[in-house]
Specification:
With 253 residues, the chain is of the alpha/beta class. The protein contains eight helices and eight strands. The protein has one domain: P-loop containing nucleotide triphosphate hydrolases (Rossmann fold, 3-Layer(aba) Sandwich).
């Protein structure tokens, strides 16, 4: 881990269901790991449990079990994210993968407080902590955005997505926080700070796709990572200001 007391915590918040938040968090985590960082990705999207699709093997304990059984350490629920080859850093994920009854218990106020504690633990052990957060409508989502250093709102590049962003801004204001940047996926959105083009590698087992050839998708993921870290990543444009320079001033929190 880098020489910092705690890691930066970024909440990737879906402006609407199915926005592509999980995939965005996974890709950004992979980009940071390729830059030599140690990254943890924690799942707050209990309803969809999409982060579980990005790991192989048995998921036990999952994140919800850690929330309802506070005797377990975070390390027992962390699984390695397959980055498809040797990279200088690493990414570990803690997905939700649980039956309905435990999901209900994991959404209680007490579990949300436990979630904040797990995020703090991850922050002390990793360079970066990324949170996969659904639209703000449950205790664990509120806990995630309240402890995050930065919030990236993820939305599809559509009229529906633009409307969802405005609702997300309002909901974040309701809980006393605000977005750091807006990311549109699968195309350009006029109000987005960073737009991620569509990729043919849509399946979970094709992720991360940002570590392959230098294409527009990989470049956009790099811009998100640079904006959130405030640092230029390796592999940036040597002839210009780099990834960070291309998104300078986006992070406002």
């Amino acid at each position: 881990m880098r020489e910092t007391e705690t890691a930066d915590v970024t909440a990737f918040v879906g402006a609407a269901g199915g926005a592509g938040t999980t995939r965005t968090a996974v890709e950004v985590g992979a980009a940071l790991a390729a830059d030599g960082r140690e990254v943890a990705i924690l799942d707050a999207a209990f309803a969809t449990q999409g982060l579980a699709d990005y790991v192989q093997g048995r998921i036990d304990p999952d994140l919800t079990r850690l929330l309802v059984d506070d005797g377990r350490d975070l390390s027992t629920g962390l699984l390695a994210l397959d980055l498809g080859g040797a990279v200088p850093g690493r990414a570990a994920v803690c997905p939700a993968h649980a039956p309905f009854e435990r999901l209900a218990w994991a959404k209680r106020v007490e579990a949300a407080r436990r979630f904040e504690s797990l995020i703090a633990t991850a922050s002390s052990r990793f360079d970066h902590v990324l949170l996969d957060v659904p639209p703000i409508a449950a205790n664990q989502a509120v806990a995630a955005v309240n402890v995050a250093d930065r919030i990236a709102v993820v939305t599809p590049a559509s009229d529906r997505g633009a409307e969802a962003v405005q609702r997300c801004h309002e909901r974040l204001a309701d809980v006393g926080t605000e977005a750091s940047l807006v990311v549109s996926v699968r195309g350009d959105l006029e109000t987005a700070d960073v737009s991620v083009p569509a990729t043919e590698a849509t399946a979970a087992d094709a992720a991360p796709a940002c570590l392959g050839d230098e294409d527009a998708f990989a470049a956009a993921i790099g811009r998100i990572a640079a904006a959130l870290t405030g640092e230029e990543l390796r592999g940036s444009d040597e002839d210009g200001d780099g990834l960070l320079g291309s998104v300078g001033g986006l992070v406002g929190r």
